[in-house]
Amino acid sequence: MNASIQDINGIIHGRLRLGVMAYLSSVNPASFPELQQKTGATNGNLSTHLTKLETAGFIRQEKGYSGKRPQTLVHLTPAGRDAWIEYLGAMRDMLKL
């Protein structure tokens, strides 16, 4: 298959969203602070990008508590895993690896 730039998922391809998807593909779920530390994002910036991924159905945010402290866990959904694998395949095809 010869992939073109149109085959690259624009929702995933943004730098911060790409980092989130890559991390969640190996560590699932991840806490909000963990993702923030791994990506170097601010609270607001990470929240914005997580909302984009959640709207696309790629992640699910689970809000709860750890003891008395609020905690948000971010899960990669099955659709997100499929989109991630498809994204990697399109990138490989474009690079002809």
Quick rundown:
The chain has 97 residues and is an alpha+beta fold. The protein has five helices and three strands; from the N terminus they run ααβααββα.
**CA gyration radius, whole angstroms:** 14 Å
- The beta-strand count equals 3
Number of helices: 5
Taking the sheet with the most strands, its summary is: 3 strands, antiparallel
Strand content: 15-25%
| Series of secondary-structure elements, N-terminal to C-terminal | HHEHHEEH
> Which regions contain 5 or more consecutive residues with pLDDT less than 50?
none
Q: Major sheet: order of its strands?
A: 1-3-2
Question: How would you summarize the topology of this molecule?
Answer:
Blueprint: H1 10-13, H2 15-26, E1 30-31, H3 32-39, H4 43-55, E2 59-66, E3 69-76, H5 78-95
Antiparallel strand pairs: 1-3, 2-3
Describe this entry's structure for a reader:
- This protein has 97 residues and is α+β, with helices and mostly antiparallel strands.
- 57% of the residues lie in helices and 19% in strands.
- It is built from five helices and three strands; from the N terminus they run ααβααββα.
- A three-stranded antiparallel β-sheet has the order 1-3-2.
- A hairpin with a 2-residue loop joins β2 and β3.
- The longest helix is centred in the last third of the chain and has 18 residues, at 78-95.
- It is elongated and about 50 Å long.
